[in-house]
Amino acid sequence: MSHHHKKDLSCFFEPQAIAIIGSFREGFFGGHVIIKSLMGAGYKGRIYPVNPAYRKARGLKVYASIKDVPEHVDFAMILINARSVAKVVEECAEKGVRAIVVVSDGFAERDREGARLQDELVKIARARGVRIIGPNTAGVVNTSNGFNPCPYEAGYYKLREGPVAICAQTGMINPQAFPYPVLGFGVSKICDFGNKCDLNECDMLEYLENDPHTHVISMYLESIHDGQSFLKISKRVTPQKPFLVVKSGATKEGAMATFSHTGAMAIDDKVFQAVCNQAGILRLDNFEELFKMPKIFASQSLPSGNQVGIMSFTGGIAALAIDEAARHRLRLAEFTLETAGMLEDIFPGLGRMPVDMGPMMAALKDAFDQYPRILEIVLGDPNIHALFSVLWASPKREILGRYIEAYELVKERFDKPVATWIYGPDPQLIAELRSQIEEMGFPVFEEPETCIKAIGLAVKYARIREKR
Questions:
Q1: Does this model's pTM top 0.85?
Q2: Are 219 and 244 spatial neighbours (Cβ–Cβ below 8 Å)?
């Protein structure tokens, strides 16, 4: 098996023809759902269902065996009893299939017999030059070609294209487990490694390193297959693309749970932290951040320094943000005399950082009409490298229009990241404003602390990039 072939994972993400081997009865899981998902996502390749018990599945002809499929197949998805998987992998290899996703569970994560079955799979794959993702996986997604073979019913099938790749050792990142349509940015690739019997995080990282659709990589890991290799590849990747990692198994108890979930041995947490520091990996604290934190990189410029500006309608949130900023080694920016003067002319007291527009809103009837101009002045200050913007979603809709105007005004003009938090009495209005602002490419986060943390990560990454 050639070295090049081992590295090339394009069969997993750009297959021309795929076989689905499993049950096709209607339900929330199985081959039937995969076909529905592929069709709904707009996949243009050929789909061959395989199962001797069926004639038709969702209007497609079903074949009794992979051997009966008349054309070349480059990708197969297997959803059958664990005991039968090895034999089917053999048949796929004979057919010339190069990439196989084994959805079936009951392998190393289950018991010793399962581990034996998994070893058998690996032996066959190595001998035949076949690559396997899984077993015990929900599979992959590629948004650029509508390749979404999700085996679980998600209720939606099309995912928005975008720059972020999300990988994990769990199906919790696949479409059935996460509401991608409300994410606020698009994704490029999704990959659940499952038990990582063959393909692992290093292989995937190398693939994404050269993937033109991926500009940010976000990964959840329970274990690392080969620490040296991971370090070497990460060092190559991080100067080009931010690489964000959440890792479980920090405690002894967590490490035990990891083993029973995917049969993986956890790496010592201190060792892992050292790897992150050496390689320029951005370490995240929790699972939700896997989806949220890439937002700051998805459509924003990198900050040129660590001075953060704050615009708010409330002093309390500003105070909290300043504490949080210090934790992330950010400094509160100070206005130039010129900027301060321009803001003081609009309203006395406005020319101080943090900018609190509360008093002005209370005093002036047309205060919100000034908002676009204020945002423009603040972002234009050379001392400000990034902005934390707090918006009050007033029940008066015309005020929301002013925000939109303001963000439109500054959108293409300043190379500075803006992280926004929205609060107010009406969740519906908050959601509307959020989606309009995110459509423009400005990330909105659920909590003020997350905004500051995201800016902190962007500053940290900008430094990593400079160093390398």
A1: yes
A2: yes
